[in-house]
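1st attempt posting a full record on here, be nice pls
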Amino acid sequence: MGRVLLAWYLALCCWGCVAPEGAQAEGNPFVGSLGNITGARGLMGALRCELQVQGEPPEVTWLRDGQVLELADSTQTQVPLGEDGQEDWKVISQLRISSLQPSDAGWYQCAVVLGGKTFVSQPGYVGLEGLPYFLEEPEDRAVTANTPFNLSCQAQGPPEPVDLRWFQNAVSLAPAMGEGPQHSLHIPGLNKTSSFSCEAHNAKGVTTSRTATITVLPQRPRDLHLVSSQPTELEVAWTPGLSGIYPLTHCTLQAVLSDDGVGVWLGEPDPPEEPLTLQASVPPHRFRLGRLHPHTPYHIRVACTSSQGPSPWTHWLPVQTPEGVPLGPPENVSAMRNGSQALVRWQEPRASLQGTLLGYRLAYRGQDTPEVLMDIGLKQEVTLELQGGGTVPNLTVCVAAYTAAGDGPWSLPVPLEPWRPVSEPPAPAFSWPWWYVLLGAVVAAACVLILALFLVHRRKKETRYGEVFEPTVERGELVVRYRVRKSYSRRTTEATLNSLGISEELKEKLRDVMVDRHKVALGKTLGEGEFGAVMEGQLNQDDSVLKVAVKTMKIAICTRSELEDFLSEAVCMKEFDHPNVMRLIGVCFQGSEREGFPAPVVILPFMKHGDLHSFLLYSRLGDQPVFLPTQMLVKFMADIASGMEYLSTKRFIHRDLAARNCMLNENMSVCVADFGLSKKIYNGDYYRQGRIAKMPVKWIAIESLADRVYTSKSDVWSFGVTMWEIATRGQTPYPGVENSEIYDYLRQGNRLKQPVDCLDGLYALMFRCWELNPRDRPSFAELREDLENTLKVLPPAQEPDEILYVNMDEGGGHSEPLGASGGADPPTQPDPKDSCSCFTSAEVHPAGRYVLCPSTAPGPTLPADRSSPAPPGQEDGA
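the predicted structure (as tokens):
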């Protein structure tokens, strides 16, 4: 590619040196001029060049300002002009500009290489000229009253210059408002909420920007300070800030505990805990906070609110409540007399201390004797020397705790009691240490657990495998003679339903849906994805064995609500009966050692030819590509429309219609698949996730991308994209557009382009599916009828028996989105002399991936499909 561009560049430079400006070289094949395009931004237009040549038509290359346009959106048409074997061609190349931008402006030319010489056409000019275009517009803001701020507005042409004019409340501002750049407006301050906009003027006219609303909020309160403090109350005051013409309605206070001291949040915007929020009526600008903890640090801040909104918060103010006296007396006070001494004991107060405990005070007195007061300190036991040698009658004792704030309440007076020595209880004649008993219990429990696990394992093995190895009578050798145990059939479907804990009404409906999981035998894995796997299987029915596809899941159902939703959906799908809708055969549950409900398994019909997208893709990109006639493609579309019409009458929304989710059965009919139940099994909250990148955005309707709303008309949008997939034979929609850009791309009015060989009527039908308003889109009944009518007017197509298939992925498998697909038994060995191993559609390899091989009989070619390559083998009469 680099050599080709270099050759173009040298050839153009040489031509520019030799040929006079504006003149064509001798023998130049170009006819006429390209024309000029001049318009506003977003204009759609096209440049066209024509040339006449003899012999093989050359490839036309487009240049802009002498540089090759590598990604030009151009089409080339070749029309034969010669008669009686002459090889004269008229070549028309058209360059489309879908939305004119500044980067598209310049001089354009066409260039071709004929006989080793380079020829270029007369130049054509593309220019951008229109109303001013805004690069930046004023944005909504909230500012505090009488605070300066700036607004910005920028616009460009062409044509230049662009003059900006500012407006406040729809009134033009004098140019002196902002001395400086025209795009910046300086506002010294506002006292009421106002609107601002700007106008851009150039020679073509005027463009008005959006209107920005500047909301005026109160200023931050000032001078927040502590007025007074008590152990459980704090009073604070502040000075309100300016609020413009809007009076303050109230102020809000927030207080939070400071666990690490008064400096815990210095430099931090918010405290680590959820603050206590209180409202204060104003005026006065003062508030008393009650029910606080004594001797505790707090942080407090204030914001004031007007009708326009709240002001900024003040900085956090560290405050602390003072200490209080203990709220209760010491507990369990006791006093014992022993001669002239008394032993007094007590415990710390159970009620809050409201500060730091400094010690205890003790008082005792007798009948007709003065009270004796003592400071004990932090001890909780003291021995007293009694006055009078202990002969004072009716002696009582009481105790109180104290903090720095003072004494707490005194305990009730306790009389002195005579000393009673405490005797130890006799030891039992025989006793086990407690750890011996514990050890014996643990050993016994371990033995029971091991025995239970052994019995369960043995039971499980017999139930699953029966008696496998038995010795022969003659030789004593081990041979396999499988005999199923009776316990195999004990886990019936009825027992499974009874164990789920669902309602009797739902249980009755599930009789025909549930399948005994022991009747399903699993084979090889056909595909595996993030949420589950698809496996080949056999369903043992009463009188036959049915080949099925079994979908297992990796995500468990965790709640009874999810389980009932899943089973209700299964009941609904079991009733589907349409040739173009893949039906549900049944559902069973596989046991799990994890907690929660057993994991569901979905049983679906076995689809011999795999998914439609792989079929289309390998018909175009396989080793032996084959041309699919338009009749076959329209038949595929009509089948899908018929299936979706049936689902819509059942009020069923698919939400992921695409070619990859449509399956081909043995009759080459398309069945809609991967809807409803299977989507809930494998994707969980797939469509409710906020991560848009995980959604199939290139198939989803624009309203579903914006609002997560899904209706039957959003399925119609997806059907239009699926039609485009079929018409392009498996191409990816919106080539070159990233998933993250799809929504903006569609919002600008862009849609999928018409495929090269697609009938105009088919593309018009697709385009109706992509109407912005869902009500303007056709119904599936209309789509099915239009497609069937289109199929009737087309000439007869190739017979299905003449189409052959070949396996392109020996031993490979599908990824999970292929759904219930797989293959039959392998065919007989093909003839080694064949260039590709072909066999009929009834003999498909188990790998499940196929490509069409060319048929020995030529098929008809429609005039509308003349630009498509002929099927291999038809060009040489094979």
